[in-house]
Amino acid sequence: MSHLQAENLYNIRGLVAVITGGGSGLGRTMALTLATNGAAKVFILGRREDALNETVAQFQATNPSTKDTGAETNIIIPIVTDVTSQASLEAAYAAISAQTTHVDLLLVNSGILGPPAKIVDNPDGSKPSIAEVKDYLWSIPMEDFTRVFEVNTTGAYYTAIAFLPLLDAANKRRVAPQKNVLSSPLAQIVITSSIAGYSRRVPFDFAYNLSKASVNHLVKVLSTSLTDYNIRVNGIAPGLYYSEMSAGPNFEEGNTGVSDGSFPTSMIPMTRAGGEEDIAGLVLWIAGPSGGYINGNILVTDGGRLSVLQSSY
């Protein structure tokens, strides 16, 4: 029963992956997870070269044996990229295709928050007047609102489209099917969404919620549209995880919130934020043979937070 052993269920040895937003937060955790567990190449894309290099440095620090041989430069490979620019995505594709013949897994993870536009009670607990609501929300420049969609939705779409030929090439490398033997996973796109895309309550801002709702539908549309090409498309919808983007009022300084009791049950039923292990385990599962039957799904990882938000469920 070796095929049921964890080392085979989550086997990603030799995998070639591309990760946008790989210089921080969940993207960095994804990159380190894949590289640590046997991926052949992990290309990390992002706008900030220093952040991308920090991801590489963290991998070197935790894998001293590869540092001695210089092998780490062949595993995590940083490429400065702006996902809102077709020219930049084309340049990234050219750089990656010069170093690999295929891509097995594309993790579309870049994202930003929007302007802090949400309706909140006054300090005395009273509701703002409708005139105050209008004036506050109207004061947000339209281009600031639109910018969130440009990164979170449009950028995700064009990133997925940019790498289709390399994903198709991965499928063409698969071993021919054998009767009663599980076939290897098809090439896959995984897009990072958020539970905000389901929630009617606005934890951050209107633009972020709406952009992530669009991302959720993008997963569904792409998974259907690419069926004939055998390219799978799935999504991950995280709740509260500590990162540069979520830090601030959600977390006390120096506390990542991963221990029980860090948050009230009214906010997160499990009373803690997600940790690196939570996202790492999910990525290994969806990238390996264990997740090979998943397509068109959005996997919620939020400690139950969505269940206590007013949502569309």
TrEMBL record:
<keyword id="KW-0521">NADP</keyword>
<dbReference type="Pfam" id="PF00106">
    <property type="entry name" value="adh_short"/>
</dbReference>
<dbReference type="InterPro" id="IPR052178">
    <property type="entry name" value="Sec_Metab_Biosynth_SDR"/>
</dbReference>
<dbReference type="InterPro" id="IPR036291">
    <property type="entry name" value="NAD(P)-bd_dom_sf"/>
</dbReference>
<keyword id="KW-0560">Oxidoreductase</keyword>
<comment type="similarity">
    <text>Belongs to the short-chain dehydrogenases/reductases (SDR) family.</text>
</comment>
<protein>
    <recommendedName>
        <fullName>Short chain dehydrogenase/reductase family</fullName>
    </recommendedName>
</protein>
<dbReference type="InterPro" id="IPR002347">
    <property type="entry name" value="SDR_fam"/>
</dbReference>
